[in-house]
Amino acid sequence: MKQTDTVVRHGPYPELTLPAVLVGYFLGAIIAISIGYAALILGFSIEGSELAAILGFAVLRGMLGRHSIVENNVTQTVASAVNGASSGMMFSVPALFILGYTDFDPVLLTFGCIAGAFLGIAFIIPLRKQMIDYERLTYPGGVAVATILKSPGAGVQKAKLLVGAAAVAALVHFGSQMGGVDNWDLGALIGLPEYMNGVWYLSLLTVGVGFIAGRGGIAFILGGFVCYWLLAPLLSGFDLLPLDAAGNPVTLPNALRVDLFRPVGIGMLIGGALMGIALALPLIISAIRSMQSAAVSKSVVSKDEMPIKLLYIAIVAAAILLAVMSILSTEHMGLGRGLLMAVMGTLWIWIAGVILSEAIGRTNWSPLSGMTLIAVTILIIIAKGLGDAEAVIAAVTLGAAVCVAMSQATDLMLDLKTGYLVGATPKMQQMGQFLGAWLGPLLVIGLIMVLHEAYGLGSEKLPAPQGQALASMISGILGGDIPTEKYLAGAGIGALLSALSGGLGITVGLGFYLPFNIVLTYALGTLLRELCDRYKGDAYSESVGIPIAAGLIVGEALIGVGFAVSYVMEGL
Amino acid sequence: MLLLGYMLLIIGALAAAFTTSLDPATLPWGYYAVAMVVGAVGLVMVKRHQHLVAHDPEQLEENLGQLNDALGRIVMEAEQLVDRRHELPVHEYRFEIDRLFRADLNQFAEARYSIRHSCGVQVFADVMSPFAAGERYINRIWSASADGYLEEANTYLVRALEQFREARAKLTAALATVAVKTSY
């Protein structure tokens, strides 16, 4: 026999069960608070699906003696749905405190975030079919979680590879965190000019993600190389680099990224997405028609999906809720302006949902902060007549709901990809996501209020770097400092590329948007996959490479969360 | 034409990107527009070439034939597995699945856009929906097998077969239409 567990079980296969949901709540609450707190200190958020899958595995199988891969998938879906509010709210809400606009209604904000979460989930119903069933996007993080969930049945060899790689990644990440060494400047060692950015991000997780994404991530890599190995040398060669206050050329890669490349990247993401939506619209309509005809014929498959009617109901209900929230967000908002903000917010959730789902599906990186920035910019422009304080409060209150919606949408797409690979029922997962989505905003707003009361957001103890970044951008927007020209030009390039191949503008734009040290390390994973496929064959990559890559992701993520928990313990 | 099209597209996109990086605040819109026009000309040339290749009757026939063969083998293997389900221990299902289905499922998935090129978006969606459902059911059987759930594995084996048969029926019907069209 090839397997050790030969117990035959009878009866229904457990999937969306009470233990699965309760364990999901428990794990989700712990992860959301830990990661949320860490985000206020470190400035970045961590995807909680891998941790939720492993902890769910331990609790359901180890402690409760349950044996169902798809039940474990639902637990992980619920837990990551709870955690979805963490990244969504930690980026946006602290900006209000940092700017000193604390005269907002936390109850309204919380319910708005819950409405936003439900709207984000509902928008994913037809996109699941288009992006997972038809386009078959990779979703490297989803593949990693599926590898974890399937490990009991995949054989001892694969489990050893997964655990071994996780241990190596954990050790490396622990060492780099303890030593305070996140990057390695190889470029300086070999005499590369500073603007060419030869700094490597020391992250085996990033190598694993690049390996799983394979060729799907090549456009992302090209985007990064175009910026730092083509445009920057050209600018330098023609003495066209921007000048600092002292009149010296700016060669710091991050300064070039912020001033020149990132705004164009954001534009490319938007233009690429709009063109992608235009091109994919017939397919999305076909997906909806296919779901409708399956529902009419009452086929077996139709019972696997949330009814498409729910999408329409959710859109209307959530848009009404967002409108109410928008109108009530400040004293002088008014009906017309409030409605316009709600409609723009709802539309943006869908557009950004497509951008984020494509980006995370092809590369595993989600430009959530950039999409939130655009949302807040649009909303501030609409609300500007109200005066700075009211405009910022209204825009960030609604922007937080939009951010949570986008976060939920991408999280659910990752989980649905995992579900596809383990054979879960989409409807059960979508219900799990709905069941988990309401809890996160309640927990996170509570955490934010308590921490602000105790330490003050933006203080040395709780710097909230993401909130500070958004706050400074809001100040820039209020002062009229919006790189509109770069957004528009980037949108044109993104649209041109996506017209060639759907999603191309988004992935190349992501290379412009993200720091190049991530792109370099990611490229190593892609190169390894290419070599592995070419010299060892696809089967080897699937059976040996993927478990190792998944292990690298899991090991580093676990240590990341471990550090987050240690911060929580220190803070108590 | 294809190479020239790609070259123009790449040069246009890179030149447009270069114009965006010349100044942090402003943009030379004239140069940008010229670069974008060059890129757009390249795009049109590439798209025209892709359209011709995608609709080349011989190429289409070959690709659709491969799709049909892969799906035919998937249905046949599923039928045989359904017939053998009372003899096979449930824990063995997943090894059989990996052995029998994975290569054909991947081959079908890789060639799937031929359906879109030859039969249109709606037929593509109509074929891919049951195919994807069938593949997801196969993955569920794998999971149920790993966990030892006998009835679940058998139920979904039959369901997967139904989905693959539906996909094949829709593909066959679409191919017949294409054959009629190309025979004129």
From TrEMBL, chain A:
Q: Name one GO molecular function term.
A: oligopeptide transmembrane transporter activity
Which InterPro entries has this protein been placed in?
Answer: OPT, YSL-like
Among its keywords, does the record have Manganese? Answer: no
KW Transport (keyword) present: yes
User: Which keywords does UniProt give here?
Assistant: Membrane, Transmembrane, Transmembrane helix, Transport
What is the species of this protein?
Corallincola holothuriorum
* Topological category with respect to the lipid bilayer: Multi-pass membrane protein
Major location category of this protein: membrane
Its Gene Ontology cellular component terms are: membrane
Q: Name one Pfam family in it.
A: OPT
Full protein name: Oligopeptide transporter OPT family protein
Location in the cell reads: Membrane
- For this protein, the parts annotated as crossing the membrane are 21-45, 51-69, 81-101, 107-127, 159-175, 195-213, 220-241, 261-288, 309-328, 334-356, 368-386, 392-414, 434-452, 512-532, 544-569
From TrEMBL, chain B:
Alphabetic keyword roster: Membrane, Transmembrane, Transmembrane helix
Q: Which residues span the membrane?
A: 29-46
Q: What is this protein called?
A: Uncharacterized protein
Originating species: Corallincola holothuriorum
